[in-house]
Amino acid sequence: MGCAAAPGKIEQHECVKPVIIEGCASCGTCIESCPENALHITDEGAKMNYDKCIACNNCIFACPNSLIKLNWDKMDEFIERMTEYALGAVQSKKGKVGYMNFLMNITPDCDCLPWSDRPIVPDIGILVSNDPVALDAASYDLVNHQKGFENSLLHHNYHEGQDKFKGVWDRVDGHLQLRYGREIGLGNLKYDLINIGSEI
Ligand code: SF4
Ligand code: SF4
Question: Is pLDDT larger for residue 180 or for residue 10?
């Protein structure tokens, strides 16, 4: 996603434009947060103009009553778009790109958010590969092999071998990104782990 131009970032996100759930107090806070004037107040509370919305998600974090939510029903499409953009960023650079995953300070939210939280598992190390899907598959497995931290946003799946990402985000299928990456030719799911250094 980071390699996409701004319109590409919007295209990846726009399938998960937020939704407003019931209970709006018409306070107007979300309207002030919207850079595109895509929100307005009606007799039935705040409404969104989806033609104007660019899915920046500012309003989700602005609502004091947490009434604006991600559209989780479209999350699979979002993950697929993100994977396609990853392929687009590297497909003309075959043999020229290396990949590194820093499995350290593994926190629950996307790194585009302006905050962080406690890590959900202990630090693991740094992984390097020329196959981004195999690298992510290995990283995913290594994180899940850890014992989760109870004083974190994990709310289940604390035990070794359980899916830590589902333990934070129940409705996200982390394997989808890996399966789809293999399907569209971004890389392979199989990997061999070769330890070339001491543990951190
Ligand atoms: S997601 Fe962004 S652009 Fe869309 S309504 Fe909310 S604040 Fe406005
Ligand atoms: S911030 Fe929340 S409560 Fe206030 S108008 Fe927007 S949706 Fe309604």
Answer: 180
